[in-house]
Write a structure and sequence with these properties.
Blueprint: E1 11-22, E2 25-36, E3 40-44, H1 51-58, E4 66-71, E5 74-75, H2 81-85, E6 87-90, H3 102-112, H4 118-125, H5 141-154, E7 159-163, H6 171-187, E8 191-195, H7 199-205, E9 208-213, E10 216-221, H8 223-229, E11 230-235, E12 250-256, E13 259-265, H9 270-277, E14 283-286, H10 290-303
Parallel strand pairs: 3-8, 3-9, 6-7, 7-8
Antiparallel strand pairs: 1-2, 1-4, 4-5, 9-10, 11-13, 11-14, 12-13
Helix pairs in contact: 4-5, 5-6
The structure holds adenosine-5'-triphosphate.
Protein name: ABC transporter ATP-binding protein
GO molecular function: ATP binding; ATP hydrolysis activity
Keywords: ATP-binding, Nucleotide-binding
Length: about 300
Amino acid sequence: MGDATDYANDYVIETRALSKRYGRKLALDNLDLRIPRGRIHAIVGANGAGKSTLFRILMGFLPPSAGEARILGKDSQSLTPHDRSRIGFVNEEHTLASWMRVSQVAAMQQHQYPRWNQHAYDNVIGHYHVLPEQKVGQLSRGERAGFNLALALAQGPELLVLDEPTLGLDVVAKRAFLESLMYSNATDDCTVIYCSHQMEEIERVADNLIILERGQLRHMSAPEDFTARVSHWIADVPFKGPALHTVPGLLEMQQLDGLQHYLVLDQDEGFERFLREAGARNVQSMPVSLDRAVNAFLAKNHAAPTAA
Ligand SMILES: Nc1ncnc2c1ncn2[C@@H]1O[C@H](COP(=O)(O)OP(=O)(O)OP(=O)(O)O)[C@@H](O)[C@H]1O
């Protein structure tokens, strides 16, 4: 274990007290984040949580307001072309020269990256109806996403950073995309970090779930360990039931068909006791999906912005 002054190289990403302010808006708030090498890491957070800002700082496109950010052990503000060649980055505003032909861009990248993997490129681009003679500016949004991914994977990166990579992809392309990701992660020892709002996808591919909220780290674990923190209780409580502010760990409450449904965080069997003491007759608990768990967690703090 490294001490406070030692940047261990087995973290592909390491931020220390990283803050980013845009005028009056604090997009990253004293963020301490360490992502270990290997596997697939998914970053989730509500709109505006700071995910893209984090990626832009990590890639050195944007300076932090305070603190520091390291990527592959290097300060993100002084990345050399060699450092960048070890990182594949894909985002929606990824700007490839729109007037260039697909084949020209691919040839250029092939020339630029010594580890270029033509097989990986062909494999990914084959899922899209992209013709080599087409100009980049003519590609559809999904085709451009596929093309960007093909280029990034063919680069043979140690680290692949993807900002909402499946946005705009159709179902088949999305599946192909996820398979390419898992394939490159498994075979090439490539660490993948991506952000997404698609929980079913994350459930399928991610080994690690990172939840950001208002520029702060709120949770990091295997997705199933987060799901295990959230439980769904159904109770038959006469009248209104307990006052909501007294319900421990409450994320969400719904009244459905005369039954009360509680989604709660970090509660054990003691919660059943709480409901029974509040007058509940029948109490049952059920597991929740990752989608439900994450959305309830994020929605909770939307509704209570001053909560600690
Ligand atoms: N150039 C900018 N100038 C001013 N504010 C900005 C700028 N870029 C981002 N912000 C603000 O910073 C916050 C974080 O934005 P960011 O794009 O990092 O969020 P995000 O988590 O990627 O959101 P989304 O899920 O909507 O893509 C937002 O509140 C946004 O309005």
